[in-house]
Design brief:
Shape: extended
Protein name: SAC3/GANP/THP3 conserved domain-containing protein
Number of helices: 16
InterPro entries: SAC3/GANP/THP3, SAC3/GANP/THP3_conserved
Pfam families: SAC3_GANP
Low-confidence stretches: 1-11, 73-81, 102-108
Oligomer: single chain
Largest sheet: 3 strands, antiparallel
Radius of gyration: 45 Å
Mean pLDDT: 80
Strand order of the largest sheet: 1-3-2
Structural class: mainly alpha
Helix content: 55-70%
Organism: Prototheca wickerhamii
């Protein structure tokens, strides 16, 4: 019987502890291999960059050699060694002249400014200008004003009287506003805040009110308040009652309840006649008492009618709506004209027809006028 060959001896399976050691060894080999590959790639990139730098340096050296081989006249001298020619010197002198002071200066001495005079003076830091020019157009300041460009208070008083006289002659608001703003500018740079400043701001505010320049009026009104609050009424006099009334009426015209409340809070305890009139007018308007409102508007003092002119139309429309809602039958147009401040029943009738009302036998017919009023309002809202 043939003898069988012995079976191949297979290696025994590693135990669990040996398998763990194999895995740890394999992980370290992978880490070493990865680090080696990264180092090799970095070395390759560095070598290629160094090669590129070397090629660039060689090309630059070759180009420099060609440039050095050029003839002398063709080569341009270095900029640092170039001397400015006559044309360049002329341009430099022209640029330097732009920063020289305007006008001739004796012995090239800089003009003394108000700030310099206040800092170096001995009159408690007070300095005034020396200009005697009565008229000067308003321009915004772009530098410190010189003494020779600013008018002292004595000259500004004459300028104010000149502006007032010309306003009475021609009523040229553009001229008057520009002159008054230049006077205000001279007052500001000289820190003048007494009687003259109050008169200037009051004059400008009144002229602006007559010309319906509300923005300028508000600026002057706010400046007047600051002047009044900066000292006692005896030291800084002015028509506080008049301008307090204007502030109330303009707040009423604007329909701004918060602004009106602020004007009322700023009133003094003792109210003057103009302020009391403005309060009666505002209360009548807010309460819808149109008869009392138009009576107060007809008796408005001084420049108060200029404030109320812009609210008469709205007040009449609201009064007409109240009449159409409250009454029935007919109402005499003459009676409505007297209530609502019209100059006669014909003017009232024209205005009522423009609002869609129906007039028969000099009377407002209520029922058809209601329909015409609604149609006119709808057409107005549609536009």
């Amino acid at each position: 019987m043939k003898k069988r060959a012995p079976a191949a001896v297979l290696p025994a399976a590693p135990s669990a502890s040996k398998a763990g050691r194999y895995d740890a060894l394999w992980g370290r080999l992978e880490t070493v291999n990865k680090s080696f590959l990264e180092t090799a790639a970095l070395a390759e990139r560095t070598a290629s960059e160094q090669t590129a730098v070397a090629k660039t340096a060689a090309a630059y050296k070759a180009l420099q050699g060609k440039f050095d081989a050029l003839p002398g006249p063709t080569r341009r001298p270095a900029l640092s060694a170039a001397a400015p020619d006559a044309e360049e010197l002329a341009r430099r002198r022209e640029r330097a002249a732009r920063f020289e002071p305007l006008g001739p200066q004796p012995d090239d001495a800089p003009a003394q400014t108000l700030v310099g005079a206040r800092e170096g003076g001995s009159k408690c830091g007070v300095a005034y200008g020396t200009s005697s020019q009565l008229e000067r157009e308003y321009l915004r300041l772009t530098r410190l004003p010189a003494l020779s460009e600013v008018r002292p208070p004595a000259v500004l008083e004459q300028s104010l009287e000149l502006v007032k006289s010309k306003w009475l002659e021609s009523a040229d608001y553009a001229y008057a506003s520009s002159q008054l703003k230049s006077i205000r500018q001279d007052l500001t740079v000289q820190h003048v805040s007494g009687r003259l400043a109050v008169r200037v701001y009051e004059t400008h505010a009144r002229i602006a009110l007559e010309s319906s320049d509300w923005a300028e009026f508000k600026q002057c009104h706010a400046s007047l308040r600051r002047l009044w609050e900066s000292g006692a009424p005896e030291a800084v006099p002015g028509s506080r009652d008049e301008f307090a009334a204007y502030g109330i009426l303009l707040a009423l015209v604007a329909g701004d309840g918060a602004l009106l409340a602020g004007e009322l809070r700023g009133l003094a305890r003792e109210l003057g006649p103009m302020t009391r009139h403005a309060l009666r007018t505002a209360l009548a308007f807010r309460a819808g008492d149109w008869v009392a409102f138009f009576r107060a508007a007809a008796a408005a003092p001084r420049l108060a009618p200029y404030c109320l002119d812009h609210t008469l139309e709205a007040a009449r429309e609201r009064a007409l709506h109240a009449a159409l809602v409250s009454y029935g039958g007919t109402l005499p147009v003459a009676q409505l004209a007297a209530w609502w401040g019209f100059q006669g029943h014909k003017a009232a009738a024209r205005w009522l027809r423009g609002k869609g009302a129906v007039i028969e036998h000099k009377c407002l017919v209520i029922k058809p006028s209601r329909e015409g009023w609604r149609a006119a309002r709808a057409a107005k809202d549609g536009d």
